[in-house]
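Folding Query — how this chain folds
Tokens — whole-number codes for backbone shape
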Amino acid sequence: MKIILLISPLFLLVFYISASGQLSPGDLHRSHEAYEGIRNCSLCHGIGQKIKAENCLECHKLLAERIRSKEGLHANPGYNDCQTCHVEHHGRDFDLIWWKNGQENFDHSLTGFTLNGKHTQLKCRDCHQAQFILEKDKLRQQNKDLNRTFLGLQQMCLNCHRDEHRAQLSSKC
């Protein structure tokens, strides 16, 4: 009888772990962890389906706005199926963006800003930094981490570069 009392909690624990593994393929990224749990699956997934982009855009309103305005990467054909590049259920700290040919080989012209000259030699985070984002509050309201997002940069030279000409010439380089 004592052995049954000792084994029962162990059996329940093993059953719980294996059952939860059947219901969820893994933990969500830390930016989505509030949506963890079986009751929240339909927030992102259609019932019995994969991720639905319109469900993602319910929360990611800045991207929805850019898509409607036909601006940026996600307005391009082939970049409207979120789960192609944004992989979930791989844990809290897994990189949420999958870059087909690696981040440093990304075709930046797809964003509407072609890299030219010395810009082609820079790493992504040389430009995509919180200090260069103009409308920080707009991104913070959408819970964006300014040190991780690729949104928020403008295409004006003086956003990133010092004005060597001290406003004596046009700001349009």
Observations:
- Confidence is low (pLDDT under 50) at residues 12-21.
- The chain is about 30% helix and 0% strand.
- Residues 10 and 166 are 72 Å apart (CA to CA).
